[in-house]
Design goal:
The structure holds 2 protein chains of 2 kinds. Chain A is of the alpha/beta class. Chain A is about 30% helix and about 20% strand. In chain B, about 40% of the residues lie in helices and about 15% in strands. Classes of the chains: A alpha/beta, B alpha/beta.
């Protein structure tokens, strides 16, 4: 296949229509009526061209939990969802708390070639919350880690959190906090409220999230560090972040697609597909996080893609694992929850799913979006499509999607990463072909 | 009725209907031969993931009086810790041809999962799931109240205007939940009394009133006082400072018994912590219904098994 791609008549995020010419991994020309001999032509008439999506919060499970997901299978799930970069969370086995592990994850991602895989380093050794992991070694490794997180667990010790915020600053990094006060959520199963009381499921109170966020923004202010808040889920959390930003505190926040669309009512049937951490909340919370995303209080959308084996969900609620897969459905869910409801335009989607997460994660090449000279990282999306989301739409190993049998808008038609297509005509390009492209491109990019 | 998972699913007429069948079953207990041939050839499995000898033998007696074959399956542990998963257990029982599964599980919702999963096509009876519900306990409690109030003329009656005060660990009590939904559906006025730590968030949305002061509640002269068991694991989890303080504030002792209207009844689902939530004097008094509750438990569970298994079942629902 040619290394030249001509995308014709795409609708850009700002609404203008034009062609995109890609050569040797970069966008070389934009405008109407472009032509290039021998180019692979993609007719994008009626499709939205978005800059490559960047997920700041992905669980790829490798090493250690390959029955749930591998770097390759998770990369394929990402590509079909329109992503060109993902951040692989550190809760693997062994934990990504050393340079060796983060370099391994990064090289697996490079070899797979579907997306840029940026490893996240653990904040504390073994995610145990007792002593700092080798943050400097990970930051200066070949993986050049910039995001540090104990995600899945909260860095709850206030002194350790203070030190982490300060120390990470040394390397230009950021701590991404999973805000969950552990004592307030012992045995917690779902959002605490009238419904949890009726269902007899132990409550995960909003205050357990909000109290940690409030503490952390004050710590970040005190030490002058950057803080990122993972998967914020409550109206109160939005208020705390809004207050912190008004004070000039350097905090960024993310919301997941599922917290933008789904509510705790789904727990009523004890179907463990809807068990997730933080839990699905009330409708008021869903409205508040949508509003927060629209007004910029919440900076980004991140998937918290969390694949699990079937048996971890096909059981009693209490025994089931927390988490949902989300890469394949993220853009459709964002469209359903905040685009089709008029809260966000496509240029806002480009910001919250590409430019801003790349900025927080220090991923180069995404600042300008689809621009001449920028690396060719983009996705073509048919926002007019509608589909009943099913198992056939999933490309990772996880089957634990909360959207199965639900009608969702939109469909990714093509994804281009490093100048080569990873998705064409709505289907993934073959694994071997992508690996070969990556190997060739890898040599070129060094 | 295909399954009995929650008393929230029961309307007044349906609940009264079950209690009336239970009256018929109670009559059987007074006969010389205490056995009906109704469920001959049917297999009832008592699937207990949690120890509860009282509830299990009550269901066992109920099934045997209806001539059903009874299999007791004590499945220890949950799917993650040890042993086989709920799914495998259910499919095993299905392969053995169980007609009804009486399930007790530490996880809230496990019976609902069993009923809706398609793993097994049997009637599911919730015999207590986590901190969710214990519907047959509530039915036997309602039956006991109705019998005490109306005696032989109980058939067809609901509990309109009856005042019931439930005292204790509402937060963790499946008995309280099932009773709140059922008694209120039958027309009773339910009042809950507990320290604030043991009332769930959102209790104000329940069809019941609630308060903290037991003496104040007793001064209202309730028809029924239902004491709940305090689990030992609550003692160390800061729900209240000491057992002594709990007992003083929310225990039903001899003085509170003396203050109670003579025709009021004192209920307890058992097993009792004598001296903690209830005094020996109260437990053994003429106003106590504790032993009637045990006897009525068998009649009520006979009624439930009879209604689920005796032919009137219509397939379809929950069988997907």
């Amino acid at each position: 296949m040619s290394s030249t791609i001509l995308v014709t008549s795409a609708t850009m995020a700002d609404g203008t229509v034009g062609d995109i010419l890609v050569r040797d991994g970069a966008i070389v020309e934009l405008g109407r009526g472009l032509s290039a001999a021998g180019a692979t032509v993609i007719d994008a008439d009626g499709l939205v061209a978005l800059p490559g999506l960047v997920d700041l919060h992905t669980h790829l499970r490798e090493p250690g939990f390959e029955q749930s997901e591998t770097v390759l299978s998770g990369s394929r799930a990402a590509a079909i969802g329109g992503f060109t970069a993902v951040h692989a969370m550190a809760n693997t086995s062994p934990v990504a708390d050393t340079a060796g592990v983060v370099e391994q994850v990064q090289s697996l991602g490079d070899a797979a070639g579907y997306v840029t895989v940026r490893p996240v380093g653990a904040v504390t050794v073994g995610l145990e919350g007792r002593s700092l992991a080798e943050i400097g070694a990970m930051a200066t490794s070949r993986a050049a880690v910039r995001v540090f997180s104990d995600d899945g667990k909260c860095v709850s010790d206030p002194l350790l959190m203070r030190r982490a915020l300060e120390y990470v600053t040394t390397f230009g990094g950021v701590v991404a906090q999973h805000a969950q006060e552990p004592r307030l959520t012992e045995g917690a199963q779902m959002n605490e409220g009238a419904l949890s009381g009726r269902l007899g499921l132990a409550g995960w109170p909003a205050v357990a999230e909000e109290a940690i966020i409030a503490r952390d923004v004050l710590l970040a202010e005190h030490v002058g560090a950057r803080l990122h808040v993972c998967h914020l889920s409550t109206a109160g959390s939005v208020d705390v972040i809004r207050w912190a930003k008004a004070r000039g505190i350097r905090v960024t926040a993310e919301v997941t697609p599922h917290h933008l669309l789904l509510t705790e009512q789904l727990a009523s049937g004890y179907d463990a597909r809807y068990k997730v951490n933080p839990p699905l909340r009330r409708d008021e919370d869903v409205q508040a996080v949508r509003q927060g995303l629209a007004d910029g209080t919440i900076d980004i959308v991140a998937t918290d893609h969390a694949p699990h084996p079937v048996e971890s969900k096909d059981c009693e609620w209490d025994a089931a694992a927390f988490g949902m897969v989300g890469l394949e459905s993220a853009l459709s869910v964002v469209q359903a929850s905040v685009v089709d409801t008029g809260l966000l335009a496509w240029r806002d989607v480009a910001r919250v799913l590409s430019a801003k997460p790349a900025e927080i994660g220090r991923v180069a090449g995404y600042a300008e979006g689809i621009a001449v000279g920028a690396p060719a990282e983009f996705t073509l999306y048919d926002a007019t499509a509608s589909r009943v989301f099913g198992l056939g739409d999933l490309r990772g190993k996880g089957r634990n999607s909360p959207y199965l049998e639900r009608t969702l808008p939109g469909r990714v038609v093509a994804t281009v990463h490093r100048g080569y297509p990873t998705v064409l005509d709505g289907e993934l390009v073959d694994t071997d072909e992508i690996a070969a492209r990556a190997a060739a491109g890898g040599a070129q990019h060094g | 009725m295909k399954h009995l998972l929650s008393t929230r699913d029961l309307g007044r007429d349906e609940a009264v209907g079950i209690l009336d069948v239970a009256e018929d079953m109670a009559d059987v207990a007074d006969r010389e031969v205490r056995k009906l041939p109704t469920l001959r050839g049917k297999t009832v499995v008592n699937l207990f993931f949690e120890d509860s000898t009282r509830t299990r033998i009550s269901f066992e007696a109920a099934a045997k009086r209806l001539s059903a074959d009874v299999i007791n399956f004590a499945a220890k542990g949950s799917s993650v810790s040890k042993g086989e998963s709920l799914k495998d257990t259910a499919q095993t029982l299905a392969a053995m041809g169980a007609d009804a599964v009486v399930v007790r599980h530490s996880a809230s919702g496990a019976p609902s999962l069993l009923a809706g999963s398609g793993w097994i096509d049997a009637a599911v009876v919730n015999a207590g799931d986590g901190t969710h519900e214990h519907p047959t306990q509530a039915l036997l409690d309602a039956f006991t109240i109705r019998r005490r109030l109306h005696g032989a003329a109980a058939r067809g009656r609901d509990l309109d205007g009856v005042s019931v005060t439930i005292v204790g660990d509402i937060l963790h009590s499946r008995v309280a939940r099932s009773n709140v939904w059922l008694l209120s559906a039958l027309g009773a006025r339910v009042h809950l009394v507990a320290p604030a730590t043991l009332l769930p968030i959102g209790v104000t949305e329940w069809p019941a009133t609630s308060g903290y002061d037991l003496d104040e509640a007793l001064a209202e002269g309730p028809d029924v006082v239902m004491m709940l068991r305090i689990q030992s694991e609550r003692m160390t989890a800061a729900f209240f400072p000491t057992a002594h303080e709990y007992s003083r504030q929310w225990g039903f002792g001899d003085e509170r018994l003396a203050a109670l209207r003579p025709d009021s009844m004192v209920m307890h689902p058992g097993p009792m912590n004598r001296g903690l939530e209830i005094s020996a004097g109260a437990a053994d008094s003429a106003r106590s219904t504790v032993l009637e509750q045990v006897a009525n438990g068998v009649s009520t569970r006979m009624a439930v098994l009879y209604l689920l298994l005796s032919g009137s079942r219509t397939g379809g629902e929950g069988e997907a």
